[in-house]
User: Fold this.
Amino acid sequence: MDQNEFDEPTENDKELTSFVIDHCDRWRDWRDTNFLPDYLEYERIFRGEWAAEDKTRESERSRIVTPATQQAVETRHAEIMEAIFGQGEFFDIEDDLKDVNGNPLDVEALKAQLMEDFKQDKIRKAIDQIELMAEIYGTGIGEIVVKTEKVFEPATQPIPGQMGQAAIGVVEKSRIAVKITPVNPKNFLFDPNGTSIDDCMGVAIEKFVSIHKVVEGIEKGIYRKVDITTGDEDTDLEPTQEVSQYRDGKVRLLTYYGLVPREYLTEKDEEIEELFPEDSVADDYSNMVEAIVVIANEGLLLKAEENPYMMKDRPVLSYQDDTVPNRLLGRGTVEKSYNMQKAIDAQVRSHLDSLALTTSPMIGLDASRLPRGAKFEVKPGKAFLVNGNPAEILYPFKFGETSLNNLNTAKEFERMLLQATGTMDGQGMVSQGNRDGAGMSMAVATIIKKYKRTLVNFQEDFLIPFIQKAAFRYMQFDPERYPSVDMKFVPTATLGIIAREYEQQQFVGLLQTLGPNTPVLPIILKGIFANSSLSNRYEMIAALDQMSQPNPEAQQLQQAQQQLALQATQAQIAVSTTQAEQNRAEAQKLSVETQLMPQEVQAKVLASATKNLPSGNESNEFDKRVKIAELMLKEADIKNKSKIVELQMADKQNKVSGMEDDFLDQLTKELNNGR
Assistant:
């Protein structure tokens, strides 16, 4: 490439470069002061690396770093990833509107197409790395990149000049790939005044890339034709696990997504109306436009253009692992376990130092009684010569026995660490004191709630926005495969491993309580299968659904049984009806007799009172007979009331018989409708 072919930067280019670099430098200073030292230590603790600042006392000799934090990070990471991708499909699509022709959108085909492209672009692997960095640093960040890739497919092609002959060849095709690239928070710059990506004036990603990629971008027209050179030897962006830094063939690239003054993207002779004086601060931030700016080696402008995406959205996403209100950066698992990790390491190192003194104590020697030139060392099976009694020449200094209190204290600190991070230990318990059923249930429920909070942040701030942005880019750059439609994406992240096992235990307990004959048995079994980790659980659920379908032969048998039961009921009711008719007739007869009885009794009483009166004492005898007659009338009245009660009971029985007839009619109707 000739020197004269290079694109010379214009005044607007220089001002734009200065504008972006000036803001990014200030943002970097703020990040390095407030977060970078913590990021480096979080990363070191996660990998189990010792540093000099870990020493809690001058006499400390052990350099061990316990894996408590690493276990907590990996446990939470595995649970979140299982919750996101455990069921296979991690999102669903709903059709908000109809398409242009008025036909419903084939959302299933569109979802299958998106899933295929996501699988081909390894979206799951990228999200796995982003979530792991969220657990370590507190914030998961990803950059959406659109590329045109070459795809080679096998194809059968006819051989020219040979009829019926074909050869297997390769067809080259191009496809639009929408990928998401993990971004380390150490390489991420943002406006500190913003609380989200869209709320910031701008965000930037800085990283080292191979120089051949920049040259390839220049050849494809993605970047400007500039005299690119390798970058400096700054190691801030390099992985910390590398012992030596590779310095050859790399370029420091700064990609800025955000607002810039519109005038920097226009030609110098284009007139732009100024609303503020040139010496005003507001003039520097007037008439801003969303843009993408790429700068190499802190001064070489490779790309400057207005946001090319149809939705004018920024291709950067972030979410908080644990919410910190009114801040873009969140709180991760390492930060929550930091203090307890330090305490555990101090206790374990103290125990190891004490164990070293008790197992390999210091020894005092009488140098005058050792053979000339003898070199004293202690090791198993070592034999050496002395001039005299060895008990008088060698004297080991005893420091007592090493206590286990340090290890017990370290275990208590570990319990606090697991409690702070919302994770479990290797036995699936939170603590020794919560090993009963009630304590375990409460502990697991609390942990699940904490996981759900992280899942909400991930779904609302990262997953759904990514799927939407990816779909919009497919619609823009690959319209043949993705029609421009209005869609609504629904996350399908379910419960993770711990939560599913906990819910499965609840289903098992419910089954034990209700018994195997409960009518909701199929529902309980389906819940147990769905929350299991069996590879064929979906086949078992399908078989259970098939078993739950009604059997035609069983239905016919049930209808026959219902007919027999109906006939038996009809016969019984017929007998009861006949008996009721008899009771009704007897009741009527009894009613007439009861009405006539008082008059008949009175007549008989009067006749008895006036018949055969003795002479001479008629008045006294008549009074006695009248009193006896009154008693007899009262007795007859009592009997009459008893007959009335019996009559009322018979009437009630007749009403019951009428209700039985109504029941028979209703039962017949229901059986006929159920056929």
Residues 610 and 622 are 7 Å apart (CA to CA).
